[in-house]
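Dissemination and training. As part of the outreach component of the grant, students in the summer workshop were shown how a complex can be specified as a set of sequence lines and then modelled as a single object. The example used during the hands-on session is reproduced here so that future cohorts can follow it. Participants entered these lines:
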Amino acid sequence: MGNRLERLLDSVQAATTLEDFQTATEKTRALYRVRHVVYHWVNSEGERFGAGTYPDAWVDRYLAQDYLRMDPVIFGCFQRFTPANWKDLDWSSKPARVMLHDALDHGLGNQGYSVPVRGPNGQFALFTLNHEAEDDVWAGFIARNGRDLMILAHEFNRKALEFELGEAAQTVPSLSPRELAAMRALAMGKSRAQAAADLSISEHTLRVYIESARHKLGALNTTHAVARALSSGLIIV
Amino acid sequence: MGNRLERLLDSVQAATTLEDFQTATEKTRALYRVRHVVYHWVNSEGERFGAGTYPDAWVDRYLAQDYLRMDPVIFGCFQRFTPANWKDLDWSSKPARVMLHDALDHGLGNQGYSVPVRGPNGQFALFTLNHEAEDDVWAGFIARNGRDLMILAHEFNRKALEFELGEAAQTVPSLSPRELAAMRALAMGKSRAQAAADLSISEHTLRVYIESARHKLGALNTTHAVARALSSGLIIV
DNA sequence: CCACATCCCGCCGGAAATGGGGAGTTCATA
DNA sequence: TATGAACTCCCCATTTCCGGCGGGATGTGG
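and obtained this result:
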């Protein structure tokens, strides 16, 4: 298996187009002999970037029904660090069960394993294997391959990030120390007056920092600026 | 090496106290024959949780000098997905060079390799190996062990998360879909009027969501609420 | 040495957000 | 079926923020 995994990793590393990603998911499916393999990058507007072997009908259905907003796989993995066996997630809500039934109707297997991957700026992606199997068989499969799948998931994500960055070179503006301190204070809930007191400067001066930070960040208002500073990793709360 | 790595992973998995983490970093140092090994969880107030083999004098110095705010290792790794060889980071700023010199004076090696690890709710940690070596020797070391180190880093972080959650069960408040949508709109720079228009509701209604979200998040104002929603991973920008 | 960035301070008018209050509907789950 | 949570709408007075304008002092890097 080791050698085949290496070859698979090489093929991921060589990916430069969406089709290559598609091919890589298919190779993964072939290697692990599962029903489906999917890598997708999740953000607030839905899927930003993805490739996988799910039937088109299911993908369309998923997006059309806005399942993204209720999918326990997405939601559950978003809250945890370790990969998740689908059976361990919370399917108690009604829409979730409806979705699951719908998924099975579209040819998905009853078992799944999703590896959450996180990148800078709150980037979040899932690498998922789906299969039809008994619970204990699937648990054994995960136990054997979990570690390799994590490596694979990270490799997919690394290439996806490169891919995206290639599209639109993200220029993270550099803020001055005072500007950063101002953003940090605001992110911690301080009012301008409090923040100014914290930095031992006049409120007017603080405003200058906030404004210049806003301009550098291309933000529309203070809240936007703080949000951008946070999600671009300039400040940590 | 495989067997020794497994034993090391077991010892990480068995960790329940800070001392256990400390021991695990020492075992890692012994296994890889490097000068220092550190795992630390980074947030805005500095180190939240950490264990490692750095001399106490250096840790104190680091905190006292507020090096956290300028450390290219922290900053660089926070911006990237892949682990970083210290030599590849940006040491151009003067304070960064001063810090590096200071570090060498405190017994650190000239080479380093830091694996960024990200968890839910914007959690961020670094797993670092430090050593004294020639550039090419170090590059070879990384090439051989990079994958194992990633696994190890994730294992450290998994236990650290369990540890923290045990200490104070982090209650991430659950926002309603509308509240989330409101936070999302604000985080994207929308004014209240625009956000209300986006959600096709009156501005007054939008305000109710913002306020209830603020209360749930324990935030002092709207900006704070958005910051918390972002850094707790409730919304993605 | 000069330029550029950073750091600090001030004023203004208009626009937006805040923090209270109350009141009705729908929907899911218990 | 009832309880609670979510969703929707409205008013008012006060505070805060916004986006310009102006100025000067102090550094570091080329």
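Residues 191-193, 207, 210-211, 221-222 of chain B lie near DNA strand C (CB under 10 Å from a C1'). Students were then asked to discuss how this feature might be tested experimentally.
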